[in-house]
Amino acid sequence: MELPKLGERCFVTSCSQLDFLPIKCAHCSQTFCKDHSFPLGHGCTGMLDKSISDDQAVATIESYACSYEACEERNVVELLCTYCKKNFCVSHRHHGCMDPRREAQRARRERFEAPKRQFNQAKEAVNKMLDEKIEKNRALSGTKKDTANKIQLMRIKQKATGRKNVPISSRTYFLAHWIPNEGAEPQSKAVFVNKEWALGRVVDEIGDQCKIITDKNPSSPKLRLFHMNGEILSEDMSIQLQKLLEDEITIDGASLIIDFHSETTVDSTNSGDK
């Protein structure tokens, strides 16, 4: 009696093992033992190569180009602007696109701001003319000078800054002029001090108000107050400001120069304020 054929040999030549439970490859349709049944195990020629390169992998991923000019960035996530509906990368998400409502608000605000700017410009021009006229009258004598001094004092009081704990009855007002740095434009600031202070403290307070940086070295030039003609108020820093007012060395509302003291006289093109 002829025995039935049992099992099959592995198709791999180097193996040829008789396997009673052979496995048929789904790609090349050959039979293999369990050790060579996987496509990679027998170098299957029927299996398609489905591997792709990195460039191919990137190309298959959907990406979105940034709409910003000259930007080559691409994102895998679409980032649409709420207003212009264009896609932008993270770096250009703030691309200057304006909400129409915000643009309308900005236009309305501009309509209100324009007259205000024009008013401020006109006010600045008028103030400049008044300053020039006041300074001209203060160089005179008699009624015109007294009136000019009163007007200047009134205007300084409107914008002067100083220590809030100085009693109103003890406040003396000055318009301080200084040059922040060599070659810079002169600046001015309305300030008030206590007339009961010594002149040294008055100088320090005005220097602080004007944010003038001083050198702590004892041999360095010291801040002093000068009339607009360059004449120093006083060399005595212990003298009380009240005494200078009584002796008419200076007046309430005077324009003064604050500068570092040197042997030369402070330059000025303005007339004196005594």
Structural notes for this entry:
- With 274 residues, this protein is α+β, with helices and mostly antiparallel strands.
- Helices cover 29% and strands 14% of the residues.
- It is built from 5 helices and 10 strands; from the N terminus they run ββββαββααββαβαβ.
- It has a 4-stranded mixed sheet with strand order 8-7-10-9, with helices on both faces.
- The model is unreliable at 264-274 (pLDDT under 50).
- GO terms for molecular function: zinc ion binding.
Q: What's the tally of helices?
A: 5
Count every beta strand, where a strand is a DSSP E run of 2 or more residues. Answer: 10
- Beta-strand percentage range: 5-15%
Radius of gyration: 45 Å
**What overall form do the CA principal axes indicate?**
elongated
What is the rounded distance between the termini?
A: 147 Å
Helix-strand pattern, N to C? EEEEHEEHHEEHEHE
Helicity range of the residues? 25-40%
Strand order of the largest sheet: 8-7-10-9
Low-confidence stretches: 264-274
Mean pLDDT: 79
Task: Name the structural class.
Answer: alpha+beta
Largest sheet: 4 strands, mixed
Pfam family, one: UBL_ZFAND1
Domain AN1-type: 4-52
Protein name: AN1-type zinc finger protein 1
GO molecular function, one term: zinc ion binding
Give a short summary of the structure.
The protein is an alpha+beta fold. The protein is elongated.
Q: What features would you highlight for this structure?
A:
single chain, 274 residues, alpha+beta, 4-stranded mixed beta sheet, two-stranded antiparallel sheet, 10 strands, disordered C terminus, AN1-like_Znf, zinc ion binding, AN1-type zinc finger protein 1
